[in-house]
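Just wondering, does anyone understand what follows?

——
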Amino acid sequence: MSPRPGSAVPPPDVREVHRRLRARFGPLDAPLQREPLEELVLTILSQNTNDVNRDRAFDAMRSRYPTWEVLASASPGDLAEAIKPGGLSNIKAPRILAVLHEIRDREGGSLDLGWMRTAHSNRVLAYLTSLPGVGPKTAACVLAFSLRRPVIPVDTHVFRVAGRLGLLPPRTDPERAHAVLEAAVPPRLRVSLHVGMIRLGREICRAGRPQCERCPLQDLCPTAPTILGRVRLGKVGAR
């Protein structure tokens, strides 16, 4: 890849990034494969929280509402109470219900999205992103984890890591980042690279104080010298 405009350092080869992340973290396996609707709701619950609290909220929700049909008839207040462990429950509850109601209307009263398994990825993406409150990242998670399609969901960790590595042009927004990264990453590496970047973003390449001295990509990263220089000067925050 050629250097980004305004940068003398070219971004690293994504294959080498993938190799080093796998060497550091071990197998970069995709999460448990779920049905499309289950993955969709789980991803909504995952917003602005960690996996532990997301799973607690999901398990509590399914315990109270054992079928999607029962869940779709819940009141926003009752659902918000059930998913409270996941945080932002007063926002997520009406969003989940709006998605379920829209799907039920489109599917003639059914909440079965099994047709997505054989549908073209573009059709699935268009359908999902037309649902209320569902953006490219949530749709990409359904494609990658439920349907095992070669896409790379861009959450906050992936966006931050890719930006620091120079894989995204300046001022790229998260929505555009999906297309940029998919153009740069071979299909067979997309899901596992997503998993590896999340591990790196959570454990090392953090938002406030990235631990570049521990990073397996330090010598490949055009941002690392600047961050390490700020640390030496006592300016521990990273931009």
